[in-house]
Amino acid sequence: MRAVRLASVIFVLVTLQTTLMADLAIRGTCADIVMLLPIAVGIVHGREEGAIAGFASGLVLDLVVHGTPAGFFALGYTLTGYIVGITHGTVLRAAWWIPVLTAVGGSVVGVTTLGVLAKMVGLEGYLNNHLIVVALVVAVVNGALVLPMLRVVRWALPTATGSGRLVLS
Amino acid sequence: MALSRRTGRSRFTLVLLILTSVTVLTLDFRGSGTINTLRDGASAVFDPVRGGAEHVFGPVGDAWNGVWHYGDVRKENERLRAELDTVKGQQAQQQDAQKQLQVISDLDKISQWTTLNGVDARIVAGPLTNFEHTLEIDKGSNDGIAVDMPVVTGAGLVGRISEVEKSRSVVKLMTDPDVVVGVRLLSSQETGLMHGTGDGQPLMIDEGIGPKVPVPPNELVTTSGEDRAAYPPNVPIGTVRTSTLSSDQLQQVLTVDPLADLGNLTIVKVLLWQPSP
Questions:
Q1: What is the per-residue pLDDT across B154-179, written as a single tens digit (0 to 9) for each?
Q2: Hey, are the CB atoms on A70 and B24 less than 8 Å from each other?
Q3: What gap in Å lies between CA A33 and CA A24, rounded to an integer?
Q4: Which residues of A fall within a CB distance of 8 Å from B17?
Q5: What's the pLDDT tens digit per position in B29-69?
Q6: Residue B10 has pLDDT above 60, yes or no
Q7: Which residue from A15, A29, A60 is facing B49, i.e. has the nearest CB?
Q8: Would you say A45 and A75 are in contact if contact means Cβ atoms under 8 Å apart?
Q9: What whole-number distance in Å separates Cα of residue B230 and Cα of residue B240?
Q10: Of A142, A164, B113, B168, which has the fewest Cβ atoms less than 10 A away?
Q11: How crowded is residue B128: how many other Cβ atoms within 10 Å of its Cβ?
């Protein structure tokens, strides 16, 4: 059931990314709401689950977009989810702004990771000053959307009772 | 003990996912049929949904672009009105020149790109992420489009077709650093190689133009169309913005502003032309 819910969330996010978010680009820079999934899962469930969610969502995005090689977003979002997930359990979550701040920081890390990966796989023209603008746009949008996304993640991937572990079954 | 076991497991999972991603990357770089099949499957699932979603979200995007580009549109409108007046004056002279050019071209059997058959197509999606230099158009193999065909607007070259489906195609913009175009400078007729440098950045010619070649300001750059070139000859590309000497002083490095407004494309033309094998 959890796997079905996670697949549904990924489907909706990829559809929104490739339609609405691409349309709402400002001077060629668009938001990256698919990246929000591994960030939110990392915040709620930790690094392993963040990495898995990042891999799954990234792989689907890889198969839909045409300008990047398959595996590019899967690798980038895996690392993003894992890195964000490291913060899981290390901070008190009493304040609402902590996940927001984590999402902003995670987005900057994610965009930078993708920029470096782009260079490594031979995609030129991305690791430059424009990447700062991209990171800012993605961070602001993801910071604004992370709280509702956390609710979506808790619905899609509730923590298994008793074990405290995410089970995709 | 439990914490260290969990940390070890999460690291193992991370390594496994990284290796899987790298394997997928490798398979795609090698042109694996499996990846292409998966992509086709994903397209079959997502394309209809995206088509529907575009209808729903299209007006939102239009409104958004209207808000953000209102000032630009006004300025562009004023600029275009001024240009239109100038063009009207030049049109009469050009008609005569065009006739003469046609006669010469017929004599020399030189093909003009404006006479090539083409398919008009509408842009249905811009870059879907921040790591692409591509556009999607609403025409595909059903309309005779094939990979590597050049894509133009009335102003000049836009890019080339990189992927084709039955009713959609992907255009790789010439701002992509991977896109290399053989070019010719109009006044000197010198040829060189040009490539993109990323979104919003000028194009760059960094091979073939010697240090002593005169390059006037705003020199027009066109496709060279030399033997086995990937583009037909004489398609306008842009005008030279700057010229500097390379670090070894052996050639000039030119930056070129594209004539086509690559950031605001709505309709393009795919030239039904393929490079000779």
A1: 888 999 999 898 888 999 999 998 88
A2: yes
A3: 12
A4: 51-52, 54-55, 74, 78
A5: 988 888 889 988 898 888 888 888 888 887 887 788 777 77
A6: yes
A7: A15
A8: no
A9: 21
A10: A164
A11: 25
Q: Check if the beta carbon of residue A131 is closer than 8 Å to that of residue A15.
A: no
Q: CA dihedral in degrees (B222, B225, B226, B228; nearest 10)?
A: 140
Tell me the nearest-neighbour CA distance from B34 into chain A, angstroms: 11
Count contacts between A and B (CB, < 8 Å).
Answer: 176
Task: Please give the C-alpha separations between residue A114 and each of A96, A111, B104, in angstroms, as whole numbers.
Answer: 28, 5, 52
Q: Cβ separation of A15 and B178 shorter than 8 Å?
A: no
Distance CA A77, CA A56 (A): 9
For residue B236, what are the β-bridge partners? B222
Contacts of A111 in chain B (CB under 8 A): 130
d(CA B176, CA B195): 7
**Of B131, B160, B154, which is closest to residue B231 (Cα–Cα)?**
B160
Which chain A residues are Cβ-neighbours of B13 within 8 angstroms? 48, 51-52
3-state DSSP assignment of residue B263: coil
Q: From the CB of residue B189, how many other CB atoms can be counted at a distance below 10 Å?
A: 9
Burial A96-128 (b: 16+ CB within 10 A, else e): eeebbebbbbbbbbbbbbbbebbeebebbbbbe
Q: How many residues comprise chain B?
A: 277
Gyration radius (Cα) of chain B, Å: 23
**Residues A33-53 pLDDT 10s:** 999 999 999 999 999 999 999
Cβ B181 vs Cβ B223: under 8 Å: yes
Rounded to whole angstroms, the Cα distance separating B166 from B137 reads 11
Q: Identify from B17, B26, B124, B162 which residue to disrupt to test chain A contact, counting A C-beta atoms within 10 A and taking the largest count.
A: B17
**Shortest CB distance from B17 goes to which of A17, A55, A126?**
A55
**What HEC string does B81-113 produce?**
HHHHHHHHHHHHHHHHHHHHHHHHHHHHCCCCH
Quote ipTM for the complex: 0.89
Structure tokens at A141: 């949008």
Name every residue whose Cβ is closer than 8 Å to that of residue A82 and which is 6 or more positions away in sequence: A42, A47, A48, A50, A51, A54, B10, B14
Contact A23 B58 (CB under 8 A): yes
Interacting residues of A47 by C-beta distance below 8 A, sequence separation 6+: A81, A82, A83, A84, A85, A86, A88, B10, B14
Rounded Cα–Cα distance for residues B186 and B237 (Å): 11
Name the minimum distance, in Å, from the CA of A94 to any CA of chain B.
23
